[in-house]
Amino acid sequence: MSENRPLRDKIQKYVDEVMSLDAVTSCAIVSRSGHIMGRQMDEGVSAPSFAAMAATMLASSEGASSILHLSPPSYVVAEMADAILIICSAGKNALITVIINNQSDVHSVKNSLAGICGRIGEEL
After folding, report:
1. Cβ(109)–Cβ(23) under 8 Å?
2. pLDDT of residue 124
3. ∠ CA 49-93-123, rounded to 5°
4. Residue 37: in which H helix or E strand, if any?
């Protein structure tokens, strides 16, 4: 169990960094297979289900872009009436999901996430 502690601590630092971004109300770092690696979400949210769906959304978008002979997406954005979901590719093993309020500047948040996603992609 202690052998996983450094990895858990590293993932928690990334969660904390993402949560410090303006407008982010919750986030999760998820494996490409849809398992939660780290998160800060409201109680009552089914984190395992959410993680699986987020991984599926990104994988489906990557599959669709491949069929169209386009490069894979770096982000998937879903805009709802009361929030915006951003799913960011974080290398070959992980992705980041964030929920921001619907008045937020999506491009600014995506720009802030880019460096974090890059570091996660290199380290995990």
Report:
1. yes
2. 85
3. 125
4. strand 36-40
